[in-house]
Amino acid sequence: MPVKIPDNLPAAGILESENIFVMSETRAANQDIRPMKVLILNLMPNKIETETQLLRLLGNTPLQVDVDLLRIHDKASKHVSIDHMNNFYRDFEQVRHKNYDGLIITGAPLGQVEFEDVSYWDHIREIIDWSQQHVTSVLFLCWAAHAALFHLYGLNRKLLSSKRSGVFNHKRTTKHYPLLRGFDDEFFAPHSRFAEMDVELLRAHPELQVLTESDTAGAYMVLSKSNRNLFVMGHPEYQKSTLKDEYLRDLAQGLKPEIPENYFSDNDPEKSPIARWHSHGSLLVSNWLNYYVYQLTPYNLDDMSAITPWES
Length: 312
Prior knowledge:
Blueprint: E1 3-5, H1 11-17, E2 22-24, H2 25-29, E3 36-41, H3 47-58, E4 65-70, H4 82-88, E5 89-90, H5 92-95, E6 100-105, H6 121-134, E7 135-141, H7 143-153, E8 158-172, E9 186-196, H8 199-204, E10 208-214, E11 218-224, E12 229-232, H9 242-252, H10 278-294
Parallel strand pairs: 1-2, 3-4, 3-6, 4-5, 6-7, 7-12
Antiparallel strand pairs: 8-9, 8-10, 10-11, 11-12
């Protein structure tokens, strides 16, 4: 949360140059507070596990967050009961008339399927288009990031010869963005995908900014110049055992997966995984929720035109 300081205090300029967020007394006195309204479109097969992962990150902030869960269709799922979906999830028609402070769209196990061949592709495009008018900021994760970059900017992913699975070292490519406040120069993040975006195409696009990347895993965090869309190519929400569970699942299905990189102790799947990304994942979501949702969203959600971008 911001530090409130007296108007015109000389320290303000120094703190801001160090990426310490401060708020003047005048701004604080005129700021109304209300719960943040966040919508989660959960595309992952294991709904409950993904819900838990995301809510854990959203809960690691002093902000009050009201969450609605959204499903892409009402078809039965193999991994969760229809009662769970009917009791806790909403259909798009139930929320399309609303505005939200934030929207999170999860990854999906569709890495080897062409976007136009995805059964709910038209519905995904409709929700993405809707979000550009009804949501202050959207966080796209993994497959959703690739899908949104394709739909919004015409940038297509490259399919990989084998699955990119593991925990990879990343570096900041820019310093002065609120999203990166508190980030170390290098940090770890997990990936689990069959495709990646061309970093040079992302850098060349006039509406996008590559904030962090990996020498091995490519672009990781990409932000639109409007601040409305944040694309994260990996899975900061994953818990310690998730990559192991995916690896064992693929083994059981006879897919002969490679051992996730930089994940198991001594690179031995018989040993325990090492979680290196939890602090990064928590900071990423906290910064997004604070600086790109809470600090930008209008008090009255009916007035989305009141959103003003950060001066980065």
